[in-house]
Write the C-alpha cells for this entry.
Amino acid sequence: MKTTPHLFTGDVVHSRRVIYQPSQFALQNLLYLQETGSLSAVKPHVSSRKDLASYLFIYVTAGAGTLVYNKRTYTLSAGDCVFIDCRLPYSQGSSRDNLWSLKWVHFDGNSMSGIYHKYLERGGQCVFRMTEEEALSEVLDSLLEEASSSSYVRDMIINEKLSSLLTRLMVASWNPGAAVTQRSKSVDTSAIKSYIDEHFTDDISLDDLAERFNLNKFYLLRCFKDDFGTTITSYITQQRVLKAKSELRFTRNTLETIAQDCGFSDANYFIRAFRKVEGTTPGEYRKHW
C-alpha cells in the first residue's frame, strides 16, 4: 500500500511528512520508521515533547532556531544536526529573525537503546555538524520517498537507510584528531594503539606503556579511552581473543597452547576472558565452528 505524504500549509509552518506504520515484523526485528518529513517555518514557533518512545534526528537546512534538551539550550543554524532520545523532554523552535527550514526523522528499534548508548560512549553530542551535508540530505530525502512507496520490501529498505544514517552518525561521533587538539598536551594515541597491535601477545603493562611513551599512566588511560571508546586493558583483551578465535577455528592446538600464543597467563584466565568477550567458552566456540 502506498502512503501519500501529508502536505500541510498553515499559519506557522509549511510541511511535508509521512506518519509511517511499520509492519509487525519490522517492529520486532528491524530499525523502523515512525515519522519523517521536512518543514519551513512561516512564523516563529515552539514545539515541546516528552516521554516519546522514539529517537529523533534533525538536519537544519536553512535559518536558525533553538533546542532545549537535557536542561541545556542550544542555538541551531543551517548545517547543524540534532540526535536525541525523545524519552527525555525537549523543545525546539525557530528564531524570530531567521525562520528555519529543516528535515527530520523519528525512528526506533529493539537495538536502538544500545546503539544510542554506544553513540554517547564514543563522544557523540546531541548537537553537532557533519561534513557530508549533501549525502545526509539525500539519505533523509530517500527515507521520505521510500516511506511513500508501495514496495513490498520497503521495511527492509527503510532499515537499510536508517542503518546508513546511524553509520554516518557513529563516524561523526568519533574524531580522535579533534580530541587531540582539545587536550592541553598532544598525545599520539594512534602510535600507542599501533604498538599494542604489534605486541598484544607480550606481557604489556600500563606502567610499561606510560614509560615507553613518556606519559603519566592515568593521563594515558584517559586519552586512549577518549579517542577509541575503550580502555587499554579491554583493547588488549579484545585483540588477544580475536587471535584466539582464529586459532580455535583453524588449528588443533590445545587451550593451554592457544592461551600462551595469545598472551594469556594461563588457560583458566583465557577461558574467563574469552567468555566475557564472546559470551561462550573457547571449547563451545570451537565446537560450533
